[in-house]
Amino acid sequence: FKVAALNVHGLHNKRVVEDLEMFVGEYNIVCLTETFCLSSDHEDPLCDQHSIDGFTLIHKPRRKCRRASGGLCLAIKNDLLKYITYVENECNFILWCKIDKRCFDTYDHIYLACVYVPPETSNYGTVSCFDEIESEILEFKKLSDLIIVGGDFNAHTSTRPDVISIDPLDAHIDHILPDLSAIVSIETKLELLQLPCTRLTEDTHGMNNWGHKLIECCHNTGMCIVNGRYGINSSHCTTTNNTIIDYFLCTAETFQFIKDMTVHTFNPCLSDVHVPIDITLKLYDTTHNVECHDDNDNARNENMPNMQENKCKVGPWDQSKNNECIDNFGTELLQQIYACIDNFNENGDK
Hints:
Elements: E1 2-7, H1 14-24, E2 29-33, E3 55-60, E4 72-77, E5 84-87, E6 94-99, E7 110-116, H2 128-141, E8 146-152, H3 180-192, H4 209-221, E9 223-225, E10 246-251, E11 258-263, E12 277-281, E13 283-285, E14 290-292, H5 322-327, H6 331-349
Helix pairs in contact: 2-4
């Protein structure tokens, strides 16, 4: 199951649409940004003037713009429409859809969003952009642990950590910092999946203001950057300016379903300076009982884990397994935790 993201820099002419039809054919969903569609063109998000054969386009034009600019679009393959629902929201910078859990064997619905943040120098780029996106993500996290966000953030993040590393002793003071346990769990989940907390990047540019805001958004929402963390070439630059400003983000829980991330080569017929990026999801179609996958099963970074598919459902506890469960407890780890707690209590009494 493949999802792509691309800044098309305009769906305003027939040639672009024709070239785009050739590109989107291998994908199930495509997040398109800077579509240049005006509000008067698309008052109804499900009514588009620039059709792509075999796909339904869900548009979100920029409101109150002086000229054709910006704009979000989700291109969804028609045979998936019965599983995918457009989710209306108020934020101009993000467009959501819900992939029903009945489509694939996931324990929760998957919420996928397309994002476009205008450059810092743009008249439409305000400091509230990321605050609004952050609020949206937090609201949708109340509905599901499985969230994917992709698009053009115009953010240079360099190698700044998007996941906060916490000292083990600090994990026992969550009564002082209530949100600390959530931060620790993100780091732990990545470690359990054998994923690095640090990211690789080929972008040698320093951070910009939007980069700091994106990292702050990750810290506040628990979202993780996929670029440079998972995928055979995901650390590559996403523009011809040798920068990374196009990203996929996801929750730590979603990584178990991600098979690969790829940064493609530049195609001048599709964009001005941006290159397409995509992720492949290792999900299971319960309707046909077959795994949805691409042809390149070996496209995996050697440093990435060969994660076991999570296909089993949790049932009632088998009481006959009580002794076996106790025997398999990591007593050494428990002793380390007790020692940390004792050490903390002793220091607290002083």
